[in-house]
Amino acid sequence: MKICVKFWLLGILFSLFSCQITETEPENMNEFTENPIWEDNFDIDGLPDASRWDYQVGGTGWGNNELQYYTNADIDNVRVNGGVLTIEARKERLFGKNYTSTRLVTHDKLNFLYGRVVVRAKLPAGRGTWPAIWMLSSENKYDPTNIPNNGEIDIMEHVGYDPGQVHSVIHRYNSNKGLVPYPESIIQVPDFNTAFHEYRMDWTPEYIKTFLDGKETLSFENSGKGWQDWPFDQKMYLLLNIAVGGSWGGLKGVDDTIFPAKMEVDYVRIYEYKQR
């Protein structure tokens, strides 16, 4: 009986601090095209396909006090080999920064309104790493000075000091007087760095949902209360990157013995939403 009570209490505590994966919902493929409208299976070795990808370059800290310099088409930081894309964060000094990495984007290649995004990836391990698969607005029509206010969808984020805790987060308006509660899921993925997992997002005019290996992890519905609550009615683009340190990823410092740190991507597929 004591053992049962113990596990019952642990279950309650866990539910307070972490979202559970729900049972798999129907795929609802009828809401999205059967075949991708855009995909990369990384079949050609070398740098990523320039017709599909571009780079965001620099060492500005990117609003998060990040420590890396994002390079432009540097094969040491990003490359395709054997059907896999590798984004690599390295400990090396460049333009005043002690680390380099890549921020790969579809901006100016593919900006889209609503759809399904599927990315199969293996994540880096190590304190100080901050990989992400995420989306930002392309148009920024609501707040040109604070880009996340226009909507940010973090399909996957992981901070190395908290291994295996995979986050999905939906960001929207921040009034500077306090944060609007952000819908978030936190899922334990023990083999995040040794196995590939499929990270997915479904985005329609009615909802945004995220999935891990086909199982729903987060759902956020359009309340119809205006852009502060739902800025997700404008085109967005996809980003893949590894940050080093930063306001979240660097909360417990950076372990310099872990580099180079790699995120590997097997494929990226984007499906079009079928307008009703």
Automatic annotation (TrEMBL):
Residues 30-276 form the GH16 domain. Belongs to the glycosyl hydrolase 16 family. InterPro entries: Beta-glucanase-like, ConA-like_dom_sf, Glycosyl_Hydrlase_16. It holds the Pfam family Glyco_hydro_16. Transmembrane segments: none annotated. It comes from the Bacteria. PANTHER family: GLYCOSIDE HYDROLASE FAMILY 16 PROTEIN (PTHR10963:SF55), GLYCOSYL HYDROLASE-RELATED (PTHR10963). One of its GO terms (molecular function) is hydrolase activity. This is Glycoside hydrolase family 16 protein.
